[in-house]
Amino acid sequence: MVIFAVTSFIATKAFFRQKEASRLQEGKHGERSSSNIIYAGIIGVVLALLNFFRIYWIYDYGDFFLLFAVSFSVINSDTFASEIGVIDRNVVMITNFRKTEPGVNGGISLLGSLASLLGGLIIAITFTLFYFSYFDVAVVVFITIMGFVGSNVDSLLGATLENRGLISKGQVNLFSSIITVAISGIFIYFYALV
Question: pTM of the entire structure?
Answer without folding.
Answer: 0.84
